[in-house]
Amino acid sequence: MKRWLGISIGFLWVLLLVQGVLAADTGKTAVVDLQVCVRDSIEGKRIFEGLKKTKDDMQKKLDERQEELLKFKEELDKQGMMLSLDAREDKEKEFERRKRELKYYYEDLTEQMRKEEAEARGNIVKELEKIVSDIGAKGNYRMILERRSSGIMYFDKAIDITADVTKAYDDLKRK
């Protein structure tokens, strides 16, 4: 009898513990995709449109330099038979020097664009992180995960707050 009483009390104890665990407030969890917020926000679109214009201007300058190099090469090919060996060698060295300069210029422009884009994206993400923190505190969230950096492969769209974060960021920038 004591044995059955002990088993019954143990069973009731386990049931109470399970009920307590099940009744515990697990809080809300959300997922946000900051890259989508950057891309879809009004401020993000404005900044990246400006960067696109800058990139187009740089591409135009690069195309002009490339065209100059091609013209120089055509002149070298036309005059090649008429030039002395030393003069031809000098022209070929000049062509190679200009070609290297064009390559370095291209690399510099590419690096400059990469830095400008990373800086712009970084500034927006910093502001978005503050907004996500505010939304988390006001909405009583236990956890808000960034979709890309946390390695989330799947989540229910009901916990996605990306649109809310984008709207809050747009509202902030309109003020």
Flag low-confidence runs.
Answer: none
Instruction: List the helices and strands in order.
Output: HEHHHEH
Strand content: 5-15%
Structural class: mainly alpha
Tell me the total number of β-strands. Answer: 2
Helix content: over 70%
Q: How many strands, what sense, and barrel or not for the largest sheet?
A: 2 strands, parallel
Mean pLDDT: 84
The Cα radius of gyration reads: 32 Å
Strand order of the largest sheet: 1-2
Number of domains: 1
Write the layout of secondary structure elements.
Elements: H1 2-23, E1 28-32, H2 34-40, H3 42-79, H4 85-138, E2 141-146, H5 162-174
Parallel strand pairs: 1-2
Helix pairs in contact: 2-3, 2-4, 2-5, 3-4, 4-5
Written overview of the protein:
The chain has 175 residues and is mainly α. The protein has one domain. Helix content is 77%, strand content 6%. It has 5 helices and 2 strands. The protein has a two-stranded parallel sheet with strand order 1-2. Helix 2 crosses helix 3 (42-79). The relative contact order is 0.17. The mean pLDDT is 84.
